[in-house]
Amino acid sequence: NNYGAGNALKYDRSDRLFTKLSYEYAFRLPNQFEIFGDGLLIQQNLELRPESSHNVNFLWNLKNKTGNSNDWQLQVNFFLRSIRDLIRPFPIIAQGAGDAILSQNQNIFSSTSQGFELTGTWKNLIKGLTLDANTTYQRFFNTSDSGPFTRNKGDRIPLEPYFFANGKAEYELKNIIRQNDNLSFFWNTRFVHSFFIGWEGDGANFQQFKDQVPHQTIHAAGITYRMNIKKLQNAITLEVQNLTNEKVFDFFGVQRPGRAFYIKSTIQF
């Protein structure tokens, strides 16, 4: 019985620059695992309420003149979100199960998120070389005046990185072995700033003793060869992820694999 709405206005200043302002009032229904749990490590919460949010975005997009082989584009987006009943998992002690520590999804009565996203692309910086980069910074805080997390008003929302960035470089060669084939080399880098697993205001004031996901800088590299055989589009990719074999973690602090090698082959027809 909830209704959402949204709209956007776009203004073209020139063929190189446009701005866009958008607003959305949206709802997000909890999924089955958030409500019913998984029967093992996530406990059910049948009283979980949907998220509702007011979302505002103000975007600027600048690019070079069309028709130029040396294409570049720069985009910056400022965003503001006001969220009611934000759904987040929290650790709980399950009574009668050996006091095991499980997790349960709960509602944070009120929170706000504001920040910016910066994205840039430069194609054919040198013939065949493309660079892509993006970064996000957000201030995501609990603003609840009531509910179970009132004591944590002013704290950052846990399990939520507030600064992260990605970059990619790709160099492409054409007509290597046969007509219209393609050989490309690529390199990806991803950085995530450290963030807390629980509320930053709980416990002692010494941050080094609090559970948090550490800084992460991860590199990956690979090579892809594409060619067409009659109407079949063939591609094979060799990739190495986590080149430096760093210790990496997901948003819940669970460790992910170290250095890994992948081979992927695709045929489209």
Structure description:
With 269 residues, the protein is mainly beta. Helix content is 2%, strand content 58%. The chain has one helix spanning 32-36, and strands at 5-12, 17-28, 42-43, 51-63, 72-94, 100-123, 129-142, 163-174, 182-192, 195-196, 212-213, 216-229, 232-241, 260-268. The relative contact order is 0.10.
The tally of strands reads 14
Number of helices: 1
Structural class: mainly beta
Q: How many strands, which pairing sense, and closed or not: the largest β-sheet?
A: 12 strands, mixed
Strand content range = over 45%
Q: Indicate the radius of gyration in whole angstroms.
A: 23 Å
Distance between the termini: 45 Å
Q: Helical content, roughly?
A: under 10%
Q: In one word, what is the shape? A: globular
Output the helix-strand order: EEHEEEEEEEEEEEE
Look at the structure and give the mean pLDDT. Answer: 90
Q: Name the poorly predicted regions.
A: none
